[in-house]
Specification:
This protein is mainly α. The protein has a single domain (about 15-160, about 165-240), classed as Four Helix Bundle (Hemerythrin (Met), subunit A), CATH 1.20.120. It has twelve helices and two strands. Strands 1-2 form a two-stranded antiparallel ribbon. α3 runs antiparallel to α4.
């Protein structure tokens, strides 16, 4: 029975103002990336997914800074990520490589499926927020890697040395491998926090500022190359140094089966087995229950 005298907890207004504004901005650029891809503007489609990834990184930090994180925000973030880093990159890859390739569009389906399963598992395993590392490749990294290929293909280096590679096959195989890494338990590092109080914090801050400088000055080269290194290094580190986490004892995606009591046959209870001593007078003695 519901106790109507107990006031229901009300959602704080702050959780849907600042952090959710970044999340919805992420959604806006994800949808805009899809629109740009369908219009044939693949370069801006790629940049829109990059912008969505930056906003996705900021919304969690803003929520922690303002202490307005909530279950609602985590669920909203996962739904938006499924579009911006699952559906949008899948459509971009389809429009560039698989538009006239028969059933090759199924590669986009495989990738999008891996993204949504990875996001659902992330909410179950890590509560919507990674503590020390990500279990499996994070979906923003995979989505931005696919989307940043076209801007990278416009660079002089690509046009000189890489243009003749079989990119349709490479991207198709790469999307399947990304799907495997998304659903794997390979640990991937989080973006470290900046700090000024310790030597480690100062070095981390200097390293992040250097990366930001490269991202601003040579974005076509930086994003694709950095994401390839991130994906590759996480996998190689696990293989070479044995840092693969142990699989959980029980798969968190599988619900525990409840015992079926319908098939349990009833049997007569011998009270002597429970209390072999002489019967005592009292409320629970067999004589009183007869």
């Amino acid at each position: 029975m519901i106790d109507r005298r107990r006031p229901e907890p009300r959602m704080q207004r702050g959780i849907i103002i600042l952090p959710s504004a970044f999340t919805l901005g992420n959604l806006f650029f994800g949808i805009y990336g899809i629109v740009a891809a369908t219009r044939g503007d693949f370069e801006w489609a790629g940049w829109f997914i990059i912008i969505a990834g930056i906003l996705d990184m900021l919304d969690g930090r803003v929520a922690r800074f303002t202490r307005t994180g909530s279950r609602f925000g985590a669920e909203l973030d996962s739904l938006v990520d499924a579009i911006s880093f699952g559906v949008a990159p899948g459509i971009i890859a389809y429009e560039i490589f698989f538009f006239d390739a028969g059933w090759s569009w199924a590669l986009s389906y495989v990738y999008v499926t891996a993204v949504v399963v990875r996001l659902a598992r992330f909410n179950v395993e890590q509560g919507g927020e990674a503590r020390s590392h990500f279990n499996g490749l994070p979906s923003p990294a995979a989505g931005m890697l696919i989307a940043s290929w076209y801007p990278f293909s416009l660079t002089p280096f690509f046009q000189t040395w890489l243009v003749d590679w079989p990119w349709e096959d490479i991207v198709g195989i790469g999307m399947v491998l990304l799907g495997v890494l998304l659903m794997s338990h390979v640990p991937y590092a989080k973006v470290p926090r900046i700090g000024f109080r310790t030597r480690k914090g100062l070095l981390t801050t200097a390293w992040i500022l250097t990366l930001l400088f490269l991202a601003v000055t040579i974005p076509r080269y930086y994003f694709f190359s950095a994401l390839v290194l991130y994906v590759t290094w996480g996998l190689l580190k696990s293989v070479l140094f044995g840092l693969l986490e142990r699989l959980p004892e029980r798969d968190p995606l599988l619900d525990e089966e409840e015992e079926d009591y319908d098939d349990v046959s009833a049997r007569a209870v011998d009270y002597g087995e429970i209390n072999p001593g002489p019967a005592r007078s009292g409320r629970f003695s067999p004589e009183n229950d007869a």
